[in-house]
Amino acid sequence: MTELKALIFDVDGTLADTEKDGHRVAFNLAFQQAGLDWDWSVDLYGQLLKVTGGKERMRYYLDQFNQAFIRPQNLDQFIADLHKSKTAIYTQLLSEGSIPLRPGVLRLIQEARTAGLRLAIATTTTPANVSALLQHAMDADAENWFEVIAAGDIVPDKKPAADIYFYALEKLGLPAEQCLAFEDSHNGILSSVGAGLTTIITINDYTREHDFSGAAIVLDQMGEPDQPFKVLQGSASNTYLNLDLLQQLHQQSLAEAV
Ligand code: XBP
Ligand code: MG
């Protein structure tokens, strides 16, 4: 039996619902501060989420949705500066405690720590954003709970490329078969499954219609004993994600692979 040794978590959309009321708001404030009239509505932002990475997303916006904008000579620097101020605004928002963890996240992570499972993060967001979320929404010491925090520009190709998960696995020194990944989006599962990881999906408003082929299970949330999840794809022997269910999903997926 291949033992489950580590859990690898995506951040945005998985640990917390950060996109609509966090990143989107911070992008818009950064645009305002820079004197730009760019305004990313909830709907438009849903379309922009097709591209991961804030800098890459701004470039995609200009290419696809704002071709009339007269680009400065050094567009890379312009975007990098805007992104720097967006990160400052976003981390400030998190420090005000404005974005909580999703249901079940803290409970599951505590259970995993108690059981001696190793923890890691694989995300396209900027490292400072991960630190701020862990510190303010999880625990003052939560950054130390994760052995590996793989984030942002640490790999050249962001999700849907598998690079960030390969990086996390290499740092953990574990094969994919001994780990589980947690994701919320199509780009996320392409990345985790691309690295050979059994993947558990919790959807959110932006991702509920995404294609999650290859997921071990698709849920509306991790759930709590008094707040059951809805199973959207696959089947579960419990009403919330706990270690027993993770072990079952892990074994099941390995058995299906042979
Ligand atoms: C998250 C992202 C990130 C955030 C913004 O995707 O795509 O770009 O939206 O963060 P995933 P930055 O959950 O798949 O990792 O502006 O710091 O890039
Ligand atoms: Mg995500």
The overall pLDDT, averaged over residues, is: 97
Q: Can you tell me the overall shape?
A: globular
For the biggest sheet, the summary is:
7 strands, mixed
What are the distinct ligands in this entry? xylulose-1,5-bisphosphate, magnesium ion
Tell me the strand percentage band.
5-15%
- In DSSP terms (H or I, runs of 4 or more residues), the helix count works out at 9
CATH topology group of the largest domain: Rossmann fold
> How are the strands of the biggest sheet laid out side by side?
3-2-1-4-5-6-7
Report Rg: 18 Å
Protein described:
- The chain has 258 residues and is of the alpha/beta class.
- The chain has 2 domains: 6-17 and 101-257, Rossmann fold, CATH 3.40.50; 19-95, DNA polymerase, domain 1 (Orthogonal Bundle).
- 43% of the residues lie in helices and 12% in strands.
- The protein has 9 helices and 7 strands; from the N terminus they run βαααααβαβαβαβββα.
- It has helices at 19-33, 42-48, 54-64, 75-95, 105-114, 127-138, 163-172, 186-194, 243-257; strands at residues 6-9, 118-123, 148-151, 179-183, 198-202, 217-219, 231-233.
- It has a 7-stranded mixed β-sheet, sandwiched between helices.
- Helix 8 (186-194) links the parallel strand 4 (179-183) and strand 5 (198-202).
- The longest helix has 21 residues, at 75-95.
- The mean pLDDT is 97.
- The protein binds xylulose-1,5-bisphosphate and magnesium ion.
